[in-house]
């Protein structure tokens, strides 16, 4: 078994330069579809560059999944589009194929001290922080992240429903009278709810303005009406009193003997913060080379 392009790589001191491509081959997608969220892989969720979620796994789990009996059974079915894998060399060829098609990404798992060294990064107790690695080592304990997502099986159903809805609106003049009457009642009910919402907002504002003069504390009707919460939570509690904000005490800056204030200068760090957009650009670059390194066990 040989993956496309895997035997044409230049090997120098155990390292390969693997060019990547944005066009994914059907074989690579089929293998990724089998491996993604496979129980043998034991993949977990981490934070790539301390910002975006990414599923990652170890290389030794990758090997076990491809040499498992489950893969052999799936491979026997031609509909799955899988190739036979019998040894480590076949696994390495598949590994190179997935990197070429930008389906997996070599990452490094950072420790607490390493995370604190990066400006703006904060350790997460639930998700480990990962950083993109320049070399993809074939080490059993090396980590790799998924750049692959399984296609939504309901996308076709959603498309059919959307088209049916469009045609239903277009053919509204041909609807029976009872359906037209039902739509009219529903639209009037929706407009009534919208009008009631705006009326409630105006009334609560008037009550709030009156309470500024009449009561020691401002009074709110439905204090959570415009908060970021659920529909039911927006109307709970029914009323509430606004607590006054505490004023922060201003500290006086120390002065020199001649009366001039002492200013403190902060030296900025030379480290740059990686944003989510930069992560996506790095992970989905059209053409780049990944260095593969073989590690003897």
Q: What do you see in this structure?
A:
Pfam families: Sec62 (PF03839). The protein is flat and about 80 Å long. It is α+β, with helices and mostly antiparallel strands and 297 residues long. Strands 3-4-8-5-6 form a 5-stranded mixed beta barrel. Strands 1-2-11-7 form a 4-stranded mixed β-sheet, with helices on one face. A two-stranded antiparallel ribbon has the order 9-10. The model is unreliable at 1-14 and 264-286 (pLDDT under 50). It has 9 helices and 11 strands.
Q: What is this structure's SSE topology?
A:
Layout: E1 11-12, E2 15-19, H1 26-35, E3 44-48, E4 52-58, H2 59-66, H3 69-76, H4 88-100, E5 104-109, H5 112-117, E6 129-132, E7 135-138, E8 143-146, H6 155-170, H7 177-214, E9 219-221, H8 231-234, E10 239-241, H9 276-283, E11 289-294
Key attributes of the depicted protein:
alpha+beta, five-stranded mixed barrel, four-stranded mixed β-sheet, transmembrane, transmembrane helix, endoplasmic reticulum, protein transport
Average pLDDT number? 80
What does the largest sheet look like?
5 strands, mixed, barrel
What structural class do helix, strand and pairing data support? alpha+beta
Secondary-structure element order, N to C = EEHEEHHHEHEEEHHEHEHE
Tally of structural domains: 2
Helix content: 25-40%
Shape: flat
Radius of gyration: 30 Å
């Amino acid at each position: 078994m040989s993956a496309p392009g895997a035997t044409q790589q230049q090997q120098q001191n155990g390292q390969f330069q693997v060019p990547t491509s944005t066009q994914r081959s059907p074989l690579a997608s089929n293998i990724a579809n089998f491996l993604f969220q496979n129980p043998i892989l034991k993949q977990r969720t981490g934070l790539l560059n301390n910002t975006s979620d990414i599923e990652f796994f170890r290389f030794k789990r990758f090997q076990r999944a491809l040499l498992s009996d489950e893969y052999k059974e799936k491979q026997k079915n031609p509909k799955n589009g899988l190739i036979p894998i019998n040894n480590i060399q076949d696994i390495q060829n598949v590994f190179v194929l997935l990197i070429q098609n930008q389906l997996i990404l070599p990452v490094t798992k950072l420790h607490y001290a390493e995370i604190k060294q990066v400006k703006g990064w904060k350790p997460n107790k639930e998700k480990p922080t990962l950083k993109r690695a320049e070399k993809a080592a074939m080490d059993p304990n090396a980590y790799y992240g998924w750049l692959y997502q399984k296609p939504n099986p309901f996308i076709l159903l959603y498309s059919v429903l959307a088209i049916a809805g469009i045609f239903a609106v277009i053919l509204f003049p041909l609807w029976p009278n009872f359906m037209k009457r039902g739509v009219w009642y529903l639209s009037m009910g929706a407009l009534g709810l919208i009008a009631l919402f705006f009326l409630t907002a105006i009334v609560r504002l008037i009550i709030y303005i009156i309470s500024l003069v009449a009561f020691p504390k401002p009074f709110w009707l439905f204090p959570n009406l415009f908060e970021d919460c659920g529909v039911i939570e927006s109307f709970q509690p029914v009323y509430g009193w606004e607590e006054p904000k505490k004023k922060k005490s201003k500290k006086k800056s120390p002065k020199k003997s001649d009366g001039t204030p002492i200013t403190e200068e902060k030296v900025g760090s030379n480290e740059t913060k990686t944003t989510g957009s930069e992560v996506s650009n790095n992970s989905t670059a059209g053409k780049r080379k990944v260095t593969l390194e073989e590690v003897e066990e």
